[in-house]
Amino acid sequence: MQTENEDEDEASCEEYVARSDFTGSSTDQLSFSRGDILLVHAKPSSEWWWAELQGVIGYVPASYMSQDAAGEEDPSIEDPWQDEEYFGNYGTLRLHLEMLSDKSRTEAYRQVILNNSASLSSKRVMDLGCGTGIISLFCVQLARPSMVYAVEASSMAEYTRQLVKQNGYDEVVTVLQGRAEEIELPEQVDVLVSEWMGNCLLFEFMVESVLLARDRWLRDGGTMWPSSAALTFVPCQADSYYAEKMAFWERPYGLDFTPLQPLAQQEFFTKPKFSHIIEPCDCLAAPCDVISLDMYTLQVGDLEEMKGQFHFCVEKSAVFHGFTAWFTVCFESLEAGGATHKKNSDAPFSLQANTLEADIVHARQACKCMRRRLDQWNNCPPEKSCLETFPMWR
């Protein structure tokens, strides 16, 4: 017979449905399948909840949970509100300030245009996802193409028109508001340029829109900028960050707070840490490209699943906290030279082997409340490889 307290506990639980499969990477994480019904007992953080499945209790990722039967709906149907929210974010200045303040990104595009200014003269250019139009403005300022089609799906397009006119370039730059899949141009273009890369290269998955625009509007023999891209991994240690987030809970103010360490590990070490700067001495092996994209030959169908491999020979004894990842993009030169664009991100574990090897798979699956889902290889014991799935919006 249940006690009164047990009845109260059950009444306070909330029932959720799993949106997709999840395999726990530690003993305190639950594994479940899409459509499973879980009882959520507590929500200690926005990322991880304390839940129960078939009498077993553990942490579950909140982004996998839904209070409707999402798993039973047609996965091919995308909700319109997701586009509205995604493009709505790009209609605000916050993201554009962040991007324009990224000098390495902005200067890379400016330098490519400057280096190819003679060849760009009299060319027709499409700037896809132009935002405030900075790349389009660089083209006219530095190279004087015959026409630039600046394509932006968000409401920022109206302000981009004002910026183009304010700078006196409205006779050359035409701003078109709409998605790449829907807009119409009066002609094909010689150059398709876009800053489509997200965190770990593929986050937000704008690359699909770039490929669709390429197939519709880039003339035969035209130029793609970037022309190629690669995602690079290196195993690393992050001792100071790990100590800051974990050792703190040992005896703050002379009290034993170690029961909070498992929660700290869940909150701080099960998701990427962005813009993490590592020293060369933090790297445990030579870097390795795990995914490479040729923007001329890559097809939309290829994006359904992209596979790569890595094999690292660990060069020193250390604690393996995780991988530092960055991407490199290359711009084909129309004249001579070229340019690359790099960014870093970091995500933690413990190493007891002299090699690390695994397959990495990026797969896309439509899922209610998530336009795009990225599957990323996450940390697991050295003697085996595993795949952990992180639903990511768009």
From TrEMBL:
Broad enzyme group: transferase
GO-annotated biological processes: antiviral innate immune response; methylation
Gene Ontology terms, MF aspect: histone methyltransferase activity; identical protein binding; protein-arginine omega-N asymmetric methyltransferase activity
Keywords assigned by UniProt, alphabetized: Methyltransferase, S-adenosyl-L-methionine, SH3 domain, Transferase
Endpoints of the signal sequence: none
SUPFAM superfamilies: S-adenosyl-L-methionine-dependent methyltransferases, SH3-domain
Record field: transmembrane: none
Domain SH3: start-end pairs: 11-70
CC terms in the record's Gene Ontology section: nucleus
EC id: 2.1.1.319
InterPro entries per the UniProt record, alphabetical: Arg_MeTrfase, Methyltransf_25, PRMT_dom, SAM-dependent_MTases_sf, SH3-like_dom_sf, SH3_domain
Pfam families per UniProt: Methyltransf_25 (PF13649), PRMT_C (PF22528), SH3_1 (PF00018)
Listed PANTHER family: PROTEIN ARGININE N-METHYLTRANSFERASE, PROTEIN ARGININE N-METHYLTRANSFERASE 2
Protein name in the entry: type I protein arginine methyltransferase
Native source organism of the sequence: Neolamprologus brichardi
